[in-house]
Amino acid sequence: QVQLVESGGAWMQPGGSLRLSCAASGTIIDGYNMGWYRQATGKQRELVATITGRTNTPVYANNVRGRVTISRDNAKKTLSLQMNSLKPEDTAVYYCNLVRNVTAYWGQGTQVTVSS
Known about the structure:
about 120 residues; mainly beta; 11 strands
């Protein structure tokens, strides 16, 4: 049974930095595409960043590019998202995603709130 557990969400002031982590269990992650998505209240879930399984190539949403870095540690089965220069519009629940074959798995989410 594949499980993804996010952690690291917090209440931050604008301009701050935060690192989110996602721990996978029940599967290896090597070779599978993974990503971070977020959903703000009243809005649809949107892509933040993805990273390919074979080449570790990152892809970033336009509204976070230059401020976030996605990374993975296949041996530890973890996915991370380093977020810098946080903005109020980054406030959302952040979800970890793994795609294995044709199935997408999601974590339960971790709340990030950016407010002064």
